[in-house]
What we know:
The complex is a heterodimer.
Chain A: H1 30-33, E1 44-51, H2 52-77, H3 81-88, E2 93-98, E3 104-108, H4 117-132, E4 140-148, H5 157-172, H6 174-177, E5 179-180, E6 186-187, E7 191-201, E8 206-218, H7 225-237, E9 243-247, E10 250-251, E11 257-258, H8 264-271, H9 284-294, E12 300-304, H10 307-311, H11 323-334, E13 338-345, E14 349-351, E15 357-359, H12 361-373, H13 404-413
Antiparallel strand pairs in A: 2-3, 2-13, 4-8, 4-9, 5-6, 7-8, 7-12, 10-11, 14-15
Helix pairs in contact in A: 2-3, 2-9, 4-8, 5-7
Chain B: H1 13-16, E1 31-41, E2 47-59, E3 62-69, H2 73-84, E4 94-103, E5 113-124
Antiparallel strand pairs in B: 1-2, 1-4, 2-3, 4-5
Amino acid sequence: xxxxxxxxxxxxxxxxxxxxxxxxxxxxxxxxxxxxxxxxxxxxxxxxxxxxxxxxxxxxxxxxxxxxxxxxxxxxxxxxxxxxxxxxxxxxxxxxxxxxxxxxxxxxxxxxxxxxxxxxxxxxxxxxxxxxxxxxxxxxxxxxxxxxxxxxxxxxxxxxxxxxxxxxxxxxxxxxxxxxxxxxxxxxxxxxxxxxxxxxxxxxxxxxxxxxxxxxxxxxxxxxxxxxxxxxxxxxxxxxxxxxxxxxxxxxxxxxxxxxxxxxxxxxxxxxxxxxxxxxxxxxxxxxxxxxxxxxxxxxxxxxxxxxxxxxxxxxxxxxxxxxxxxxxxxxxxxxxxxxxxxxxxxxxxxxxxxxxxxxxxxxxxxxxxxxxxxxxxxxxxxxxxxxxxxxxxxxxxxxxxxxxxxxxxxxxx
Amino acid sequence: xxxxxxxxxxxxxxxxxxxxxxxxxxxxxxxxxxxxxxxxxxxxxxxxxxxxxxxxxxxxxxxxxxxxxxxxxxxxxxxxxxxxxxxxxxxxxxxxxxxxxxxxxxxxxxxxxxxxxxxxxxxxxxxx
Lengths: 414, 128
């Protein structure tokens, strides 16, 4: 039978909990306990950090936005409302892809305008990545060449195609393909990338089309090669006397020039696709003239040893479907997603504190409503056509057993 | 009941005439810390920001405990970055201004520009 009495010294004082007075403090422990369950007198500190680089980026973005607004106004004035709308809302809209289960994926809808700096960056990024792996070879040097032609008062498609053809002639000429150095050793320019640009000069009210070229040459390019180049360019164009040649370099963090190592930043100078429209953005007639002249022209082209970069579809012009977009759409299609006929605005997306994104409740309800109400073709069907030009090779008949060459060869052996 | 309250202010020119930490003062890594005490519009060159220093600085052989940061490009840009992050100037904030490097001028005839990192600490009002 258990004793009804407590064991001797079996009752212990309660263990002091955190924050409670343990005894022996000032004011009998009240001072210690005063701050336990409140944050009233705990001072809070806010911290901010700002950098000059951050401010510079903000200023740059503001300048860009201002310029874009000018171009949008000009596009509207010259009757290109669709392009203006796309440029003004670039990056704001997303294609909505959904599954019957309600899972939703968003794909961005870029404007792909020739004047949009964000789209220009996006287009040039894969090409720069590709080129970065092709430069900095041993025994080679890299040069930056600017070829000019006399200014023209009115810019037309003919002017752009003419300068493009003139450069093609220069590339196939002996100056690029075969020249002898001091030791009578035949040298050649291996390849490069060229970009056609055109700026407007308000003082003379004329256009200045020119070509920037980054090319790969032998390690020692003789200085008199420039004289040969000038003569060849003059002979091809008839009246162009000015060109500029300098060795390509990258700049280190300390501001020093480094000639033997080209970085992505240095490559960006040639393949940045940026249209310098500050001088004519406010004039709708000039904007229209520029767009007409460049319509359908490939501004950036690789040649020679750099041709591989363009051959894989890395060089892309405005309006051409991006390989990345097509691949993303194709992979979504394979995963059972289908595109919905409406788009999501960036206001429909909420960014959570952890950085992840979530669609707003209203928009999600709209998506679910549409999926339930519409019988989308969720079943397996043929994937969308990938926009790639495929060459069909016609087979006209059986090949002769022995060609003429083979015949003569066999006779020679006999 | 009907007592008139009187307010008084006194302005002194020597309170304004404090050393200005121009571009030549700054070098990579140099740090100035103190309490932000206000700003004033200069006749030329935009606003100047007055800081009561934690440690006394010796400038041209004279000790200075209050200095002004002029509207250098780097300072303006760092403040713009701060504003973007939600900061608004308030008297009593603790400023720590560090020069993070000197940016070389791209064009001839222009001076080099110091770059800054500004850290601000503010004691927020205690929660109710």
